[in-house]
From TrEMBL:
Gene3D superfamilies: NAD(P)-binding Rossmann-like Domain
E.C. number: 1.1.1.300
Keywords noted in UniProt: Lipid metabolism, Membrane, NADP, Oxidoreductase, Transmembrane, Transmembrane helix
Main subcellular localisation: membrane
Reactions the enzyme catalyzes: all-trans-retinol + NADP(+) = all-trans-retinal + NADPH + H(+)
Subcellular location field: Membrane
Family indicated by similarity: Belongs to the short-chain dehydrogenases/reductases (SDR) family.
Gene name in the database record: LOC115043857
GO cellular component: lipid droplet; membrane
Membrane topology value: Multi-pass membrane protein
Summary of the function given for this chain in its UniProt record: Catalyzes the reduction of all-trans-retinal to all-trans-retinol in the presence of NADPH.
This protein's name: Short-chain dehydrogenase/reductase 3
Source domain of life: Eukaryota
InterPro entries: NAD(P)-bd_dom_sf (IPR036291), SDR_fam (IPR002347)
């Protein structure tokens, strides 16, 4: 009986969500003002991280930039400052929990409380399981998944104190269905992290703290160059990916798949529920 009630409630929720989505597709959502907010971006020296930094700067946010690549990270900071926006670069290895907590203490002391956290940094080994050294498999999980926990534990308390903040998880379409083993496992973890964090915030009535999950298809940044990945659909352009993500973030959308085609694999997860209900 309970299963039937659960399923009925889920169908009602799904119908309501679809109706809301259809209506919102025709209405231009109001985009929030983030002028003066302090935004921290991990992997800010990378292709998407740098574009996110520039887009957030254009929206008036002040920037804290984290990356293990000091040269690339500092270059991003220079580009942000050329827009007349404050940027603070920190060299941090996200695979090391302690270095995250130490850098977070420095940011709070030197710059202030972070109100927008963009967990963007990511790596991929992209080899078959048995051909992949354990260290590479471990690094992917540490950077793409474990780091989300440490970053959020470091900055969520201040957001909770003010009931104000936004946590953005740059996951992937490969967090919704699988091909490259290490990367997919880490991105499935990122999707699960986002969903559980969102439920936790909801349960604590912290309606001022928003979350956004970003699930792009392949983006032409070179991250997957040389990796065994076949697909007929051409890769996304980095700037288009970031601009679409920014619209979702500023509209406080809980999730965005880019392009919309990627919602298909996501919706197939409801199929799993059907098997569970049998
Ligand atoms: N490119 C794509 O096709 C897609 C990417 N994504 C996701 O988007 C995000 C950004 O991807 P993209 O810009 O393409 O990747 P890039 O490799 O261009 O950028 C990733 C950045 O993260 C940094 N980084 C890697 N390891 C660490 C670490 N241990 N500590 C701190 N920083 C680290 C990298 O530094 P370094 O260069 O020195 O390693 C790099 O600057 C990732 O999470 C990725 O999974 C999602 C969908 C598609
Ligand atoms: C387009 C498309 C597909 C393939 C998607 C692929 C191959 C995505 C790769 C994404 C990557 C590499 C993301 C990196 O973070 C499917 C699922 C076969 C069918 C639905 C449409």
């Amino acid at each position: 009986m309970i299963v039937l009630v659960d399923l009925l409630l889920m169908l009602i929720d799904l119908t309501f969500s679809i109706l809301t989505a259809v209506i919102q597709t025709f209405l231009r959502p109001r985009l929030k003002c983030i002028d003066g907010e302090l935004c921290l971006i991990t992997g800010a020296g990378g292709a998407l991280g740098r574009l996110f930094a520039l887009e957030f700067a254009k929206e008036g946010a002040r920037l804290v930039l984290w990356d293990c690549n000091a040269t690339a990270n500092e270059r991003t900071a220079e580009l942000v400052r050329e827009l007349g926006v404050e940027a603070h670069a920190y060299t941090v290895d996200l695979s090391e929990r302690r270095s995250i907590y130490q850098a977070a203490d420095r940011v709070r002391a030197e710059v202030g409380d972070v109100s927008i956290l963009v967990n963007n940094a990511g790596v991929v080994a992209g080899r078959r399981l048995l051909d992949c050294p354990d260290e590479l498999l471990e690094r992917t999980l540490l950077v793409n998944c474990h780091a989300l926990f440490w970053m959020t534990k470091a900055f969520l308390p201040q957001m909770k104190a003010k009931n104000h903040g936004h946590i953005v998880t740059i996951a992937s379409a490969l967090g919704l269905f699988s091909t490259a083993c290490d990367y997919c496992a880490s991105k499935f973890g990122a999707v699960g992290f986002h969903e559980s964090l969102t439920h936790e915030l909801l349960a604590e009535d912290l309606d001022g703290i928003k979350t956004t999950l970003v699930c792009p298809y392949i983006v032409d940044t070179g991250m997957f160059a040389g990796k065994e990945l076949k697909s007929l659909i051409p890769p996304l352009q980095p700037l288009y990916t970031v601009q679409q993500s920014m619209k979702a973030i500023l509209a406080e959308q809980q999730m965005i798949c880019i392009p919309r085609l990627m919602y298909i694999p996501f919706l197939s997860r409801y199929k799993l529920l059907a098997t569970w209900a049998k």
